[in-house]
Specification:
By secondary structure, the chain is mainly alpha-helical. It contains six helices and four strands.
């Protein structure tokens, strides 16, 4: 009887993770406001893509949500990879897609705290920002050469960390606030549903 219960729970968790990945993939394909607000020509937008991942991390154990987030990173690259391979090749794919979305899965560590969904959003957003920041000071510093302009300010190679902070911080802050606002609306009805 216990084995049958565990099998049913595993099937439910697997199906739920697949549904959250599918919803996030649909949001990734919606490239118009309010589903997506493009900020920068080389990537970086404010969208709904992370919200299903945060909901998954809040609802499921990390043994499900962590691999699902990494899988979503690969799926997102396959469906929206844009021109990233031109700038950073395989390393950029691994950092800006697979790892950046994969680390969101660690936010499930906070899921059982009071207001766990909001802690998941804060932790996951910071983790994803950290990966994009590292990508900005390594891969993209090399790809864009000596200088690049942002907000009418020219950043040279000595200011790569500040540039990455401003560039990646701008859209990640927007995405985090977007997700927090939507989570505040959805929190009460979703709290009534059973979680694993």
């Amino acid at each position: 009887m216990i084995q049958k219960t565990n099998t049913a729970k595993n099937i439910r968790c697997l199906c739920e993770a697949a549904v959250f990945i599918a919803i996030a993939a649909v949001f990734a394909l919606l490239k118009f406001p309010p589903f997506r607000i493009d900020l920068w020509i080389f990537g970086g937008s404010i969208d709904f893509v992370m919200l299903p991942l945060f909901l998954m991390c809040w609802r499921l154990d990390m043994k499900w949500s962590l691999p699902a987030c990494f899988i979503f990173g690969m799926v997102k690259f396959l469906i929206t990879g844009d021109s990233i391979s031109v700038y950073g090749g395989l390393l950029a794919v691994m950092l800006d897609y697979v790892l950046a979305y994969g680390v969101i899965g660690f936010s499930g560590f906070f899921r059982k705290l009071k207001g766990g969904l909001f802690w998941c959003i804060l932790a996951g957003s910071l983790a994803r920002f950290a990966v994009h920041f590292i990508s900005g000071v390594t891969i993209y510093k090399l790809a864009f050469g000596d200088s690049v302009e942002l907000f009418n300010i020219s950043f040279d190679h000595t200011m790569a960390a500040f540039y990455s902070l401003v560039y990646n911080g701008s859209y990640m802050l927007g995405e985090m606030l977007y997700c927090l606002a939507l989570a505040a609306v959805l929190y009460k009805p979703l709290s009534k549903l059973p979680r694993s």
